[in-house]
Input
Amino acid sequence: MQPQRGTAELLMLLERILENAFSGESGAARLQQVALFTLIYLLQVHDKPATASRLAAMSGQSQANLGKHLKKLMDLDLIERTPIRNKQGRGQAYELTVRKSGKTKPLTKAIEKGARSRK
Output
């Protein structure tokens, strides 16, 4: 099977992100954090609230396991939590969004470049 140009570029970008992002973490933790960051960013771009329960449903992970990785992303000042109403409009949930900063710019730029190369 011949790889498409877009997928080869995306692979190169992901390799660079994984090599440089989240220093001091194991490879598995870096992979999970990059995936979570990417999901949060893509949901944000498409105006869909990224909540822990939505991410858990999408990934098949428990909210407790996701919480550990989300905390790391928040501690690194890459994402933030904002209180919102839950789906029923009665309780409180937290929307996760990517912060706009010098730390997140290379990651979001790589995601956008990968998406553009797929078109």
Notes: Residues 111 and 117 are 10 Å apart (CA to CA). The domain at 5-117 is CATH 1.10.10.10 (Arc Repressor Mutant, subunit A).
